Amino acid sequence: MLPRRGTAYAVLLLCHAARLAARRDVADWVRAARSHGTFVAAATDLTSPAEHLLAAGLADQAEGIVLAPPLAGIAGIADGATLRHIARVLLTADPPAWLRIAVSPNGVARHYIPTADLQALEWLDPQLDDMLVDVCRAVSSPRNTEVRKRIGNAAEAVVLAALRADGRHPTHVAAISDAFGYDIEIAGSPVLRIEVKGCSANSRGTFHLSRNEYDRSQFYDDEWLLTQVVFANEAFVAPSLKPAHIIGIFEVNAREIASAVPPDTAEFAWTDSAVITPPPEAWRPAPYAVADVILPGLAR
Q1: Buried-most residue among 37, 132, 283, 299 (CB within 10 A)?
Q2: pLDDT tens digit string along 188-218?
Q3: pLDDT 10s digits, 88-107
Q4: 3-state DSSP of 223-239
Q5: DSSP 8-state assignment for residue 276
Q6: Residue 158 buriedness (CB in 10 A; 0-12 / 13-18 / 19+)
Q7: DSSP strand E in the chain: where?
Q8: What angle do CA 150, 154, 158 make, to 5 degrees?
Q9: How far from each other are the two terminal CA atoms of the chain, in whole angstroms?
Q10: Are 66 and 78 in contact (CB under 8 A)?
Q11: Is-contact 116 299, C-beta < 8 A?
């Protein structure tokens, strides 16, 4: 649930009601919160926020409603600082899907935030960007993994569709196992093994590479290729992916990747994953075009 100002106010009323006395269930909780609010409370949806607090783990209903620590100590006054604290708690407990895309080491790129969501959050200005950066640092890594996986899956779908439209017959080996060290295989002489990465226009040319992927690239050499699908900013908020949402598909070979990776030493060898940035001149456009197909969107 996005922390609109009205939502934050509703949570404030619910927290106040929960602290005043034990509440048996959601209906009792909402009734008490409404009775302690001003006339504005009568026009405020309190049931949806109450149910969301329970679903997000910010409240618990056992023998009565109990607030989780992030909300248990908030003030009962609807001032700006309190409402912003509630907004931060709500964003941290249930971060929006676009958060990891909009926030980068360079700050917040607001064009990655859906217009309706941005309008709903603008009441948090001028602290909104700082809050989103702080929340992004605080959210759990599984959320980050989920977003990266969604982008990767979309990139693989783009490349598979493009290869099929080009008359090739790719096998999606990543759907079988991650152990291959690449995502797509095309039979032939030689076999072509393609590792696919997705990125935004701002992060093109850089990618995360696992140690297994790197080792496979060096083992297969000319048969192994990294392909990067560069998505336009609009792709991250569009309900479906269309050809216009893809800036291009680019390739870099295993030898260029090796030249960008520091060699292992007796003192250090990377074992998990690394961020790789081959030189710009190492990249070339893929020899096939983006297919004229519509694919599931990234903003879900």
Answers
A1: 132
A2: 989 999 999 998 887 889 888 888 999 999 9
A3: 999 998 888 788 778 877 78
A4: HEEEEEEEECHHHHCCC
A5: E
A6: buried
A7: 59-61, 65-67, 103-104, 107-108, 170-172, 184-186, 192-200, 207-210, 224-231, 240-241, 246-253, 273-276, 284-285, 295-296
A8: 170
A9: 14
A10: no
A11: no
